[in-house]
Amino acid sequence: MAKLLYRLAHAARRRRGTVLGIWLLVLAVAGIGALGFAGQTTNQFSIPGTESQQALDHLKDKLPQAAGASGRIVFAAPQGSTLAESQQAIDGVMAQVGRTGQVSGAFSPFVTKAISQDGRIGLAQVQFSVSPPEVKEETKTAIKDAVRSVSDSGIEVAYSQEIAGEMVAIGVTEGIGVVIAAIVLVLTFGSLVAAGLPLLTALVGVGIGIGGLYALTSVIDMSSTAPVLALMLGLAVGIDYALFIVHRHRKQVLGGMEVNESIARAIGTAGSAVFFAGLTVIIALVGLTVVGIPFLSVMGLAAAATVAIAVLVALTLVPAILGFVGDRIVSEKARARAAAPGQQEAFGYRWGRAVSRRPITALVLIVLSLGAIAIPAFSLEMGLPDDSTAPEGSPQQRANALVTEAFGPGFSGPLVVVADLPSGANPEQALGALAGRLGSVPDVTRVVPAGVSADRTTAVLQLIPSSGPSTEATKELVSRLRDLTGEIKAQTGSTIGVTGQTALNIDVSQKLSDALPTYLIVIVGLSLILLAIMFRSILVPIKATAGFLLTVAASIGAVVAIFQWGWLGDVFGLTHGSPIISFLPILMTGILFGLAMDYEVFLVSGMREAYVRGDTPREAVVDGLGHSARVVTAAALIMTAVFLGFVFSHDTVIKSMGFALAFGVMVDAFVVRMTLVPALMTLFGKAAWWYPRPLDRITPNVDVEGETLARHIGDQERHEKVPQPV
User: pTM for the complete prediction?
Assistant: First the structure.
């Protein structure tokens, strides 16, 4: 691998104009594709095969007009007034909404009788003829324009998510992380040229990745979170991978190596580590497809594609631009400092010696502290976003608050019951008997028949729970209704299925929760195999995986404490705690696995390089950490800064993702990789590099440390020095 990348770097440097032109052309094509073909993203989640999806599919067959998306418009009169004073205006507005494209029915609160006891708050229903992802932005805009006349008259108007249509957007605050990353790069390199190069190449890679994703939204159902996740990872790894290569190149040039040769060797050595580090991230993200959840698979593949582009940029565009930069990659001040005698020993060496002197103390302190942080993870509650978790003051949040105030929390997330009525029975009587039986189930507030199919064999009912959509009580109600299916059929003759957005969210959350152990097994297995191949060791992969599991546990614990329990809510702009987004634990596990292996590869490859060179095991630990600590520290700070930039997002989902990844990277880089790893490697001694001979014979030599490349270059130099016969 190292020799291949060495030759690739030489070719990219020699043909740097062509390489740069190709990447700029690809960037332009991606941008044009995004502008010309971008479709809509969605915040709706579903999984084929779940009970709620099966019931919804059945409803689409029998009552297609009732199977589309449904939204709510909430009207609230000022304190001391009632909606009756504006009835004519509200009825007129809802009639106009009913004539909007993609709307199959719009029902005023005076028609549905959904008006609070004091007459101040009313709930209108809008039934769409299409599923939630298919509702066009023009439709939502037309509805909001129609009701604007009522809001202008002093009536407060709020909408549910289906109408509000506020997708996750990339804003200015996300750029804060990039600014911090730039500052870290300048401090690391002391040169604007060297600092600007990783930022430039990362932005090229991210531009291509995000542009391509938005171009695909017209043909692929993609969650609104997927492009933001790809942006997070693309920026973070794009900057870090270029940083590792540029750092190696500068170090070699300062050591006296010729610039062009240094570019190729930096790609051959640090580039090999970048390749395998990127490969671990890609494998972790692609591995999300094994859990069989379509929207999660799309998110994983989208992020993996962006990381793959970042790796390609690092291995081809970075050497090309380094060729343009030439000697300017190192300033005269840097050369003078490197040549000055009496240089202070780097902090990494001092830290490595401190840890290796007391490895057991470091091990115990880390395990106890991370174990304590992980305790809240045992209280993890998962759910999907709904109007109750929307940002404070948003139309969705206001709609949820007004509905809860007027009618109770259950009205914010009604369940839909699809019933096959008994053959030969009177539909009205059968429907009445079923509604009565469902109404007697504990925690059911109201049951309202909502329609019967044209063939009079299938009915749909709206069931209002006593609790909100994200609560444990509603989850238990859905489970109870499904458990009662046989009993209800025996008593009423009707076969029921429970669906609706609330039930869909509950089923998706459960499927994700069930998939997490399987995914962990897959990821742990892959990490053991991949690291064994890279380092030809048994203990190194086991130690790396154990550290990764500690990182994940502590990260989930911190997320639960802040976003579910509400600790430090004021600091993070949270008004209340809520269940953790269902896909966050599994997504965080995959991403942190890949990033954790990044630092593992860079740190341990340095230790192995020193050990192979002849250092004792303890000296190899100190040397490896000393050589890598500065660049790994910079990389971790940059990645943390990029992720923290998303904590300032107004969207709770993005906020929690940004925090989880930022916290996980900080813990893994500074606590696990730079403290726990050297402590364990010191305790392992020579055993850290033991590898059974049978496995050694069948394991391919991937040469992460560049040993083969060094021998190859040495052989070439010796051959050139031998006098050739005349």
Answer: 0.81
Take residue 667 and report the two structure tokens written for it.
């813990």
Inter-residue contact 38 to 215 (CB < 8 Å): yes
Q: Which of 167-176, 245-254, 576-585 has the lowest mean pLDDT?
A: 167-176
The two three-digit tokens of residue 260, written as one number: 């062009």
Q: Which tokens in the block code for residue 120?
A: 């101040």
For the sheet with 495-499, list strands across it.
444-452, 458-465, 415-420, 495-499
* pLDDT tens-digit map of 432-459: 899 999 999 999 998 888 888 888 889 8
Distance CA 144, CA 157 (A): 9
- What tokens appear for 403 in the block? 């509905």
Asked whether the beta carbons of 545 and 528 are under 8 A apart, the reply is yes
DSSP state of 115: B
For residue 230, give the amino acid letter. Answer: A
Give one word for 196, left, alpha or beta, with left for phi > 0 and alpha for psi -120 to 50: alpha
- Joined together, the tokens standing for residue 568 give 């430090």
* Token pair in block for residue 261: 């040769």
CB 293 within 8 A of CB 285: no
User: Cβ(39)–Cβ(218) under 8 Å?
Assistant: yes
What mean pLDDT is predicted for residues 362-368? 95
In SS3 terms, 80-91 reads as CCCHHHHHHHHH
Q: Render 221-233 in DSSP notation, one character per residue.
A: --BTHHHHHHHHH
| pLDDT per residue as tens digits for the range 177-228 | 778 888 888 887 777 888 888 889 989 998 998 888 888 776 677 777 778 8
Residue 710 has pLDDT above 70, yes or no: no
* b/e 520-538 (16+ beta carbons within 10 angstroms → b): bebbbebbbebbbbbbbbb
Structure tokens that stand for 221 in this block: 């159902």
pLDDT-based confidence at residue 41 (cuts at 50, 70, 90): low
Output the CA torsion sign for 130, 131, 133, 139. Answer: positive
Tokens standing for residue 191 = 């040169």
Q: Is the confidence at residue 109, as pLDDT, over 70?
A: yes
Instruction: Please tell me whether residue 630 adopts helix, strand or coil conformation.
Output: helix
* Interatomic CA distance for residues 700 and 698, integer angstroms: 6
Could you list the beta-strand ranges (E) of 83-217. 103-107, 121-128, 156-159
The values of phi and psi at residue 311, to 5°, are -65, -45
Q: pLDDT for 153-173, tens place per residue?
A: 788 999 888 887 655 455 555
From residue 94, how far is each of 152, 216, 312, 428, 621 by CA, in Å?
A: 16, 35, 54, 29, 72
Give the end-to-end CA distance of the chain in Å, rounded to a whole number: 36
- Are the beta carbons of 20 and 317 closer than 8 angstroms? yes
Alpha-carbon gap, residue 199 to 179, rounded angstroms: 10
The tokens 């809520």 sit on which residue? 578
SS3 label, residue 249? helix
Would you mind telling me the total number of residues written for the chain in this entry?
726
DSSP 8-state code for residue 132? G
Burial level of 15, CB count in 10 A (0-12/13-18/19+)? middle
Check residue 171 and give its pLDDT: 54
Q: Please name the amino acid found at residue 61.
A: D
Alpha-carbon span 605 to 574, nearest angstrom: 42
> Tokens 């509702």 label which residue?
135
Q: Please name which of 478, 486, 597 lies closest in space to residue 535, comparing C-alpha atoms.
A: 597
Contact between 576 and 523 under an 8 Å Cβ cutoff? The reply is no
Q: What is residue 726's predicted lDDT score, i.e. its pLDDT? A: 45
Q: Concatenated DSSP letters for 655-674?
A: HHHHHHHHHHHHIIIIIIII
Binned at pLDDT 50, 70 and 90, residue 719 comes out as low
